[in-house]
Design a protein that fits this description.
This is Response regulator. It comes from Pseudomonas violetae. Helices cover about 45% and strands about 20% of the residues. It is an alpha/beta fold and about 130 residues long.
Length: about 130
């Protein structure tokens, strides 16, 4: 039985948020969104999602710093987080994982990529 039922998508791109919401809602997930890292802190506190997909590059509070903050914040030290980015070098991926992300997905992403990522994140909760 999947443990992840609600997901927060944090991305400054309206198109990415819309695509993510469509893909995830059609797959039966409850989806919340935030336009940047600061907004994500409020959404995450109020909605308490089971997992997050966080964009690496955002204005004001980027995904790397947001993940570092979340990892020190309550039960988010253990909750699953995937980083989304168009940056795809080995260095970029390692930096994302070292910031505390459990997975690193490159954009553009497909439905199958996202659903496979959720399955992988779900195993972290076992």
């Amino acid at each position: 039985m999947p443990k992840i039922r609600s997901i927060c998508i944090v991305d400054d791109s309206a198109g990415v948020r819309k695509l993510g919401v469509t893909l995830l809602e059609n797959a039966g997930y409850e989806v919340h969104t935030a336009v940047n890292g600061y907004a994500a802190l409020t959404v995450i506190r109020e909605m308490a999602p089971d997992a997050c997909f966080i964009d690496r590059e955002m204005p004001e509070l980027d995904g790397l710093r947001l993940i570092e903050l979340l990892r020190g914040w309550g039960d988010w030290g253990e909750k699953p987080i995937a980083m989304l980015s168009s940056a795809s070098s080995v260095f970029d991926k390692q930096t994302g994982l070292l910031s505390g992300a459990d997975l690193y997905l490159t954009k553009p992403f497909t439905r199958d990529t996202v659903l496979d990522a959720i399955t992988a994140l779900d195993t972290l909760l076992e």
